[in-house]
Structures are given as structure tokens and as C-alpha cells.
Design brief:
This protein is of the alpha/beta class and 961 residues long. It is 55% helix and 14% strand. The protein contains 29 helices and 22 strands. The strands form four sheets. Strands 6, 7, 8, 9, 10, 11 and 12 form a seven-stranded mixed β-sheet that branches. The chain has a five-stranded antiparallel β-sheet with strand order 2-1-5-4-3. A five-stranded parallel β-sheet has the order 14-13-15-16-17, sandwiched between helices. Strand 1 and strand 2 form a beta hairpin. It is elongated and about 165 Å long. One of its GO terms (cellular component) is plasma membrane. GO terms for molecular function: ATP binding; phosphorelay sensor kinase activity. Keywords: ATP-binding, Cell membrane, Coiled coil, Kinase, Membrane, Nucleotide-binding, Phosphoprotein, Transferase, Transmembrane, Transmembrane helix, Two-component regulatory system. Pfam families: HATPase_c, HisKA, Hpt, Response_reg. It is a multi-pass membrane protein.
Length: 961
């Protein structure tokens, strides 16, 4: 059986492709040598004719000998019967005795007759006729007959596999009397064998004659073709003077003439080519001489420009690092000091210091971005993104700044917006950050709605409109005129903090071929409008639309803007939203619904109804849950949720942070309405503070203020902190002690953070310690470099308490085992290795993120298909599915799933290739369960992770811009 061709990767230099290999192998199977063709067409007719003649002659001889034998038998029987009847004068018994003594003995002397018998049918005591052998010469016949079988029949021949007999009745007798002569069958079989032997000898003689004739023809043809092959090889090597001799055969003579004509034409073309080549080389030499001087001048100019750009970039990076490092201590300790007991005057002073530091940090960020735009080094990315998700993430970062001025950031995402677009998510997030920060600076006491609407759409392009509205409570007429002037053709030379952020946003929008405008609104503030063209992502599959048909949810929120946002989203999911704005009358309203059997399926209660009285708010929620069995979701700011979390976490089904995102709302609804939620393996719970076992963290920084700040922030989370001032000291502490996490400063004298991390990774065995980078360089290239160097995550200076808490919780969740027996699992490869993902993607974070996201997106379908094929026993389909999943794992940093799929694939390979060997059932079942376990673990991990932030694709943001 021919094997299917296997595709091989092509080597870099002049190697045939896979299709060419397949073509060659197919050609080898179909081609035949001239010798084989001549043998086939010369010997085949002769052999076939000889076989047919041999068979025909043999069959004819067999027929003739059989007929001769039968005719002799019939003649002998008739002669014996006639002789018996000629002696009628004697009694029957005397004739039989005479026949037995003379004539029958004489018949047996012939070679053709085996035996002779004479039967007579006599009646027995019951009057039934039975044959009795009255005379016999020779052995008994192989086949006997009864009287009933022969009674009334004429003379005939009986033949079967055992014997050949001639049966003839005696005439004129009163009784049933028969004469049987059994013929000797080997008589004609031996003659048949002799004829067959003669035919076989003739067949061999014919085959030898045909073979000699075929060899002579093939040798003659091969010699002729060999001469033509040698001539063509010489012409192909450039010997155009080679000529082929003529032949006596007409066709071969014509072929010789054509080959000689081809050689003449090639010789002429070669001469013309050489002349043209010499002329072209002469012209090129003259052109190169004239271009050499220009290239030298351009190279000098280019080196000078690159040097200037490098000096400028180095200066900006060093300046940013040197300023961010002390700012980290100033902002951090100011926040810590504000949590202590200080009087009103001291608190005002501290707030002034904090705002000034944050303003300086914002100015540094804007200068860096502005310098990139001014130098033309801004390169836009084109990667898949979700614009609504980008907006929600930005507002969640800026929300604490808004809460300080009693402002709520409310995102409105058009349901018609496709789930995936192509754009630059980092730059779009920077546009959102600058515009929303400007709106926060101009507003107070209210809400800032941010709306995304779809204006128009084509097959491959989408035009979206982004609107941001402020109430102008903290912006005077002069400030609004300055903001509008920034969008004119002649912006002012001196720009404030707001002006620089708005200018950067305008430059980014223009780089994306969009438009930014500012208009006055009815509230006395400004409306910022951005129009952006985005390409549609046609390669992404459509996201399944979530639906909660028939579900009634009561929204308890005094803010009509947030009620509108959540109500629109619930209506889009086919749920029925009910609104209630007064928390004081909430219990009576629920009691009235209880009496009329009109209870909603769930309640979404905002912490704003507490009005600062959280004791009453907590008791009200407990009353609703205990007395009316309400399914409650609490939403609010992170600070408010923290105040009621410990008390209500056993009664409330979900806590929803504001600004409310679509994914967060969906997760909360699935917890509150499990009958509407899709089945999904339960994800691991995030460990709550204080920790079950107090973690130990190593903080490494050469700046004393930063070490002290990190110590205070970590101790506030019930974490034991050990500090180190250099890479050498950190390495010694790590060798002597165990740490659950390390915060590593990158730029240090002597052994820097990257070198220290490399030493730790080289000496690490078993459990992998997460190392978080502390750096003031926040560029995408810097983040990619850190992750590929072995660090697991990064924090940009200045480090905020929120970022630190989120990072600690996330990495403690990944690495801290919830049960003692899990320690063995954690000693193996990591579930997800970001550094390996970047290495496989050639240090391209966008590509690494997309590859990991595509793998995670198909895990649910892969798990279902693997389970179905395993239950059906479809080994072929199971091998193909596991092989495809393993191929996807080879491009992502998922070592545990990659190893599991590889093991299962190797066990399935013998079955898939139909080899007699079979995989061990216990090993096969264990490998299959391991793959399912790793798929579920990876899905649980992905449910609570932000891939943008893990791969360094989140743009730098300032919490108080």
C-alpha cells in the first residue's frame, strides 16, 4: 500500500518544496524503464498465446480419451449381453457360470476395465426386490445401486467423483437383471498429464525465445537513448558544440536533428547574453561611481540624525527615571500620612503636596508622549481589540480620582458595536485618559457620561463617535476658551496641564485619521466629541449574545445616570429592569411586591442609598435577604464595597464595582441567576486578606525611601517584608530564606534587577518565585524586555496602593496553594509563562497576546469535543483534535498543557497509524484526564486575568490626571 506523502519544512537554500517532493514520488511510481516496457509488450503476447494453446490442447485430449473410454465400455457391455443371449439353450445358471469362468475373466485383461458385476433382483420374504450379486470379477465397485434405482431404465452411463460405470440390462429375462462394467479412470488421466507436461515444456521454450528477443530489443533501444542522454547532459552543462549522430530509424533521426538545432540556438543565445551582460556591467559601474559620493553624504547625515535622536531619547528616559524615583516616595508616603490622624490644616497641606506631585507626574508623562509625536516616532499598532472594554478599563482606573470630587464615571456602549475591531488599544486608552481627566478637572458633584455610538459601518470599516460631557463646575470661561483654542490651527505657545493632555489626545486622534471637537452644553460645561474610523476584525468569530429573557431585576440607585446605563444593558440582554431611587422606602416596596407575588428575580442595590450610614444599609440588606429571600447584588465604589464586604459576603450573591462594566455585570447576573447562566467550571476563589498563612515578600530597591514605602504598603496587607538595597544582597537573602514574592527594582548600581533575576532563575529549582519589576521606564519595549528576561509582571513608579494590592492578590492567587497537596503540582512547570510567550512571538507583545487569546478562546469547544470523542471511542478524531490543540500550545507559553497534550498525542499515535501495538488503557485514561484538568485550570486562570496588562500593552495612566 502506498503511503501518503508527508509534508516537510523547506530548508532555506534551493530545497524543493513539499509539493515538488510529492510530484517526484508520484512520478517515480508511474514511470517505467524502457527495458521493462519492452519486456512487457514482447513477452506478454507470447506467454498468453502459449498458455491458451496449452490449455486448449490439454482439454481436447482429455475429452477425446474420455469419449474413447466410454465407447469402449458401452461396446464391451453390449458384447457381453449379446453373448449371454446367444446361449439361450442353456439354463440361466449355466450361462452365468460360463460367463464367470471365461468371458468376464477375459474382459478384465483389458486396461480400460476395472471390474465387471452381474446383479439380479430377487424377492425376499416380504416380497420386496433386492439386488443380489450373482457374479463378479475384479474389486467391488465404488458406487452400488438398488433395484428401485435401476428398475425400468435403459442402458446408461453413471459417473461421479468416485467411479465411472456402464450399466446395461439383460434382455428377455423375467427378473430385473443388470450388467455393470466399472471403467478404469486413470487410463485417460495419465494421458491428460502427459499432454499437460508437453504443453508446459512448450510454454517454457516460448518464454525463453521471447526473453531473448526482448533483451535484444531493449539493449538496442537503451544504447540509442543513452547517446541522446549524454548529448543533452553536455548541452545542459554549457557545451553547446556537442552534436548527436544520426540514426537509421526515422523517428530517432528526427530526434537527433531537433537536438542539434536546439544546441545551435542555445549557442547563439549565449553569445548574445554575454555581450549584453558586459555592456550592462559597464553601465552599472559608471552609475555606482556617481552614487558612491551621494551615499557617503547621506550616511553621514543619517548618523548625525540618529545620534541626536538617541541623545534626546536617552535624556528623556533618564530624566523620567530620575524624577519618578523620588516622586514614588513623595506620593506613596503622602497617601500613607493621609490615613493617619492629622488635623484639618495638616490635611490641606498634604492634599496640596499630593496634587502637586501628581500634576508633576502627569506633566512628565505628557512630555514623553509629546516628544514621541513631535519626533515622528509614534507608530500606531493594528491589533484586535474591544473598544467598549478599553473604555471600561480606562474609567475603572480614573474612577478613584472622580470619587474625590463626587463624580461618577458612567460608560455607555452602543449594543450595535461589533465585539472586535482593529486599532491601537494603547493609544485609544490614552485618548480616553486625557479627555476624561480633563472632564474630571472641569466637573464636580455629578456624573460624567462617556458614550460610544456607531455612526456608520461598511464591510471592512466602522465609524464610531465618542462623547464625553462635563458639567463645568470647576472651569471658568477663560479655561473653556483655552480648551477650544487648543483645537484651532494656532494653539497657544504656553499650555497648562489640561492643554498638554488635550493636545496629545488631538495629535493621537489625527494620527488615526479621526476628528476631535469641543462644544458647549446646556449644563454650562463642555462636550468632547471624537470620531474614529476603525477596521472590522473579520477573523474573529462572533461572540454569543447573552440573554436573560423574562428576568425582572430591580435597580436601587439614586443616580439616574447609572440606572439608565444598567437598564439599557439589561434590556439588551432581554431582561426587564425595574427602577427604584429611594433607599428609605425600599423595604416597604419589597414587602408590597411580596404580598402581590411580584417579587423580582434579583436586586441590584447601590451603596449610594446608604448616604454614609452603612450600619443601616447593612441591616436593610440583611432584612431583605432573611425575610424576603431576595437575591441581592451590591454595587458601588471599591471603598464602599470594602466597608460592607466582610458583613454581607455570606448573604449577598455578588459585589459589583463601579464604574459598572459589561463583563462585571454579566458575571454578577450569572451568579444571581444560575438558571440562566451557561455551565462553566468553577473558578478558584481569590484569597481574602488577612492571608491564611502570612506571606513573606522581598523588596529590593537602592532608594531608601522606596524601600520604606514598599514596607509600609505591604505590611498594611498583613505581609511580612524583607528589604534589600542591592542585587547582591537580594541574591544572598533569596538563597538563605524562602520568599513568596519578590519586588525587584530594575536600575540599581552594580548588579541591576535584570541580572539579579537571571541569577535567581538559573539557580531556581522546583517552585518558581514570582518576581515583579519596579521600573520608571514604562515604554512597551521596556515592558517586553522585562517579561522576556524572566520577570513575571511589572509596576511603574510611582507605585500606587491600588496597583500594589491588585498585583499582590493576583500573583498570590496564582502561586499560593489553597491545599497542602497542591505543593507538588506547583513545583512543576508554570501554568502560563509570559516570558516564554514573548520569546515564541519574537518579542512582539501584541502577537503573543493574540496567540494566547486565540488558544484560550477555543478551550471550551476543545474540551467538549475531546469528551465526546473519548466517550464514542473515536481514536482518529481524538488524535487529530489533540494534535491541533498541541500545535496551538507550541506557539504560547502554556508549558503544562503543552506537555499534557504531547503525552496524549504520543499514546494515540500508534492507534491513529493502525499499528498493531495499542496504548495501555490505564496510561491512556490518565493522560486524557490530565489534558482535561490542564484545560480547566487554564480556563479558570484566564477568567480573572487581564492579558493587556500581562503583556505590557496597557498604556501608562496617572490616577489623578
Amino acid at each position: 500500500m502506498a503511503h501518503a506523502p508527508q509534508s516537510n519544512s523547506s530548508p532555506p537554500a534551493e530545497a524543493p518544496s513539499a509539493s515538488q517532493h510529492r510530484g517526484k514520488r508520484t512520478g517515480f511510481r508511474r514511470r517505467m524503464s524502457l527495458r521493462a516496457i519492452l519486456f512487457r509488450y514482447t513477452m506478454s503476447p507470447a506467454l498468453i498465446l502459449a498458455v491458451l494453446l496449452c490449455l486448449l490442447f490439454t482439454l481436447q485430449q482429455m475429452t477425446d480419451r474420455r469419449d474413447l473410454l466410454l465407447s469402449h465400455g458401452r461396446a464391451s457391455a453390449e458384447q457381453l449381453v449379446e453373448l449371454i443371449h446367444l446361449s439361450d439353450d442353456y439354463s440361466f445358471e449355466d450361462r452365468i457360470r460360463w460367463l464367470d469362468k471365461s468371458l468376464m475373466a477375459l474382459m478384465l485383461e483389458r486396461d480400460m476395465i476395472r471390474s465387471v458385476q452381474l446383479y439380479r433382483a430377487d424377492r425376499d420374504a416380504q416380497g420386496k426386490e433386492e439386488f443380489k450379486l450373482i457374479s463378479s470379477v475384479g474389486p467391488r465397485p465404488r458406487t452400488a445401486f438398488t433395484a428401485e434405482q435401476l428398475k425400468g431404465k435403459q442402458a446408461h452411463i453413471y459417473e461421479d467423483l468416485k467411479s465411472l460405470q456402464v450399466l446395461h440390462p439383460l434382455r428377455g429375462e423375467d427378473t430385473n437383471c443388470w450388467l455393470t462394467i466399472e471403467l478404469h479412470r486413470p487410463y485417460f488421466l495419465v494421458g491428460t498429464y502427459q499432454v499437460a507436461l508437453v504443453g508446459l515444456v512448450g510454454l517454457i521454450v516460448c518464454a525463453l525465445i521471447a526473453l531473448v528477443w526482448a533483451v535484444a530489443l531493449s539493449e538496442r533501444a537503451s544504447h540509442s537513448l543513452e547517446r541522446y542522454k549524454d548529448s543533452l547532459r553536455a548541452i545542459g552543462q554549457g557545451k553547446f558544440n556537442t552534436r548527436t549522430p544520426s540514426s537509421n530509424n526515422v523517428e530517432l533521426a528526427q530526434l537527433s536533428e531537433e537536438i542539434n538545432l536546439m544546441a545551435d540556438n542555445l549557442a547563439e543565445y549565449h553569445r548574445d547574453y554575454q555581450e549584453g551582460l558586459h555592456q550592462s556591467m559597464e553601465d552599472l559601474r559608471q552609475s555606482l561611481d556617481s552614487m558612491e559620493e551621494q551615499n557617503i553624504e547621506l550616511e553621514l547625515a543619517r548618523k548625525k540624525a540618529l545620534e541626536n535622536s538617541r541623545v534626546k531619547s536617552t535624556f528623556l528616559a533618564n530624566t523620567s527615571h530620575e524624577i519618578r524615583t523620588p516622586l514614588n516616595g513623595i506620593i506613596g508616603f503622602t497617601n500613607l500620612l493621609l490615613k493617619t490622624e492629622v488635623d484639618q490644616l495638616q490635611q490641606d497641606y498634604l492634599q496640596t503636596i499630593l496634587r502637586s506631585s501628581e500634576s508633576l507626574l502627569t506633566t512628565i508623562n505628557d512630555i514623553l508622549d509629546f516628544s514621541r509625536i513631535e519626533s515622528g516616532n509614534l507608530v500606531l499598532d493594528h491589533s484586535p481589540m474591544n473598544l467598549g472594554q478599553v473604555l471600561e478599563e480606562t474609567l475603572q482606573i480614573l474612577a478613584p480620582y472622580g470619587y474625590e470630587h463626587n463624580l461618577e464615571l458612567v460608560p455607555f456602549v452602543d449594543p450595535q458595536l461589533p465585539p472586535s475591531q482593529i486599532g491601537d488599544p494603547l493609544r485609544i486608552k490614552q485618548i480616553f485618559t486625557n479627555l476624561v481627566s480633563t472632564a474630571i478637572r472641569c466637573s464636580e458633584n455629578g456624573s460624567i457620561p462617556v458614550r460610544i455610538t456607531v455612526q456608520s459601518g461598511k464591510e471592512s470599516e466602522l465609524m464610531v463617535r465618542i462623547g464625553i460631557v462635563d458639567n463645568g463646575a470647576r472651569c471658568d470661561d477663560q479655561g473653556r476658551r483655552e480648551l477650544k483654542q487648543l483645537l484651532s490651527s494656532n494653539p497657544p505657545q504656553q499650555m497648562t496641564n489640561n492643554g498638554m493632555g488635550l493636545g496629545i489626545a488631538r495629535s493621537l486622534v489625527q494620527s488615526m485619521n479621526g476628528e476631535l471637537t469641543i462644544e458647549d452644553n446646556d449644563q454650562g460645561g463642555c462636550s468632547y466629541w471624537v470620531q474614529l474610523p476603525l477596521a472590522l476584525d473579520r477573523n474573529r468569530t462572533a461572540v454569543t449574545r447573552e440573554q436573560f429573557p423574562g428576568c425582572r431585576l430591580l435597580l436601587v440607585d439614586p443616580n439616574p445616570m447609572t440606572r439608565q446605563q444598567i437598564g439599557q444593558q439589561l434590556a439588551h440582554w432581554q431582561a426587564e429592569p425595574l427602577e427604584h431611587s429611594d433607599g428609605e422606602y425600599l423595604v416597604p416596596a419589597i414587602e408590597q411586591m411580596w404580598r402581590h407575588d411580584a417579587m423580582p428575580d434579583a436586586l441590584i442595590i447601590d451603596t449610594a442609598v446608604a448616604g454614609g450610614d452603612f450600619d443601616t444599609f447593612i441591616s436593610t440588606v440583611q432584612q431583605l435577604v432573611d425575610n424576603f429571600q431576595c437575591r441581592v447584588i451590591i454595587q458601588g465604589s471599591p471603598v464602599d464595597l470594602r466597608r460592607c464586604y466582610d458583613t454581607l459576603r455570606t448573604r449577598v450573591l455578588a459585589f459589583l464595582g463601579k464604574p459598572v462594566s459589561r463583563d462585571g455585570l454579566l458575571r454578577a447576573l450569572k451568579r444571581a441567576l444560575p438558571h440562566q447562566a451557561q455551565s462553566r467550571p468553577p473558578s478558584g476563589s481569590v484569597p481574602s486578606l488577612p492571608w491564611p498563612a502570612k506571606p513573606r515578600v522581598l523588596a529590593v530597591d537602592d532608594y531608601e525611601a522606596n524601600r520604606l514605602l514598599m514596607s509600609e504598603l505591604l505590611r498594611a496587607q498583613n505581609i511580612e517584608v524583607v528589604v534589600a538595597s542591592s542585587g547582591e544582597e537580594a541574591l544572598e537573602l533569596w538563597r538563605d530564606q524562602h520568599f513568596d514574592m519578590i519586588f525587584m527594582d530594575i536600575q540599581m548600581p552594580g548588579m541591576d534587577g535584570i541580572a539579579t533575576t537571571g541569577k535567581i532563575r538559573d539557580e531556581e529549582t522546583g517552585h518558581r518565585t514570582p518576581i515583579i519589576a519596579l521600573t520608571a521606564h514604562v515604554g512597551t519595549e521596556e515592558k517586553s524586555r522585562l517579561l522576556s528576561a524572566g520577570l513575571d509582571d511589572y509596576l511603574s513608579k510611582p507605585v500606587s496602593e491600588t496597583q500594589l494590592t491588585h498585583t499582590v492578590k493576583r500573583w498570590m492567587e496564582v502561586y499560593t496553594p489553597s491545599e497542602p497537596e497542591q505543593l507538588v503540582t506547583l513545583a512543576g512547570p508554570r501554568l502560563v509563562d509570559i516570558g516564554e510567550s514573548l520569546s515564541l512571538a519574537n518579542q512582539d507583545p501584541n502577537l503573543a497576546r493574540d496567540l494566547l487569546r486565540m488558544l484560550l478562546k477555543g478551550l471550551h469547544e476543545d474540551e467538549q469535543e475531546l469528551s465526546r470523542m473519548y466517550q464514542e471511542g473515536d481514536c482518529q478524531g481524538l488524535f487529530e483534535r489533540v494534535h491541533r490543540l498541541h500545535g496551538g500550545c507550541c506557539y504560547c507559553g502554556v508549558p503544562r498543557l503543552r506537555a499534557a497534550t504531547e503525552q496524549l498525542q504520543e499514546l494515540l499515535r500508534p492507534i491513529q497509524e493502525e499499528v498493531e501495538a495499542r496504548a495501555d488503557s490505564a496510561a491512556f485514561e490518565s493522560a486524557y484526564e490530565r489534558v482535561r484538568k490542564e484545560i480547566r485550570s487554564l480556563r479558570d486562570w484566564a477568567a480573572d486575568q487581564d492579558l493587556e496588562m500581562l503583556f505590557g500593552l496597557e498604556p501608562e495612566t496617572a490616577p489623578h490626571r
